[in-house]
C-alpha cells in the first residue's frame, strides 16, 4: 500500500519561502513520477508541479513558474517543493502523490493520474 507523508508547511509572510517534503513508502519510488497538488478552501484541487522518475523533466502550472522548484532524492524516497516569493494566493493545503507511471506526460496535472495521496501540509501566506 502506497503511503506518503508531507511536511514543511507553515505560516509565512508574502515574499517568503518554504520547502515542502514528501516521503513515500510502499512503492518502488524511482518507478514513479511524483507530483504536488494544492487545494484552497472552496476551490478544486489543482496540480502544481510534477517531476519524472529520474528528476530531469519538470512541469509547473503557469502561476508558480520561476518561483517554485520541484526535486527528488530517489535514494531517500523523498520529493521536495522549494517555494520562493510566496504570495497570498499560494495559500492552500499541499499534497504530494505518486504518478501511476514513470513520466509526468501531458496530463500530469490531472488527479486521476495519481494514487497514494497523503494528508497534506498547510501553507498559509499572509499579506
Shape field: globular
What structural class do helix, strand and pairing data support?
A: mainly beta
Fraction in helix: under 10%
Largest sheet: 7 strands, mixed
Number of helices: 0
Radius of gyration in whole Å, from Cα? 13 Å
Structure description:
This protein is an all-beta fold. The chain is built from no helices and 11 strands. It is globular and about 40 Å long. It starts with a strand and ends with a strand. The relative contact order is 0.32.
Summarize the structure.
With 127 residues, the chain is mainly beta. 0% of the residues lie in helices and 47% in strands.
Keywords:
single chain, 127 residues, mainly beta, four-stranded antiparallel beta sheet, 11 strands, globular
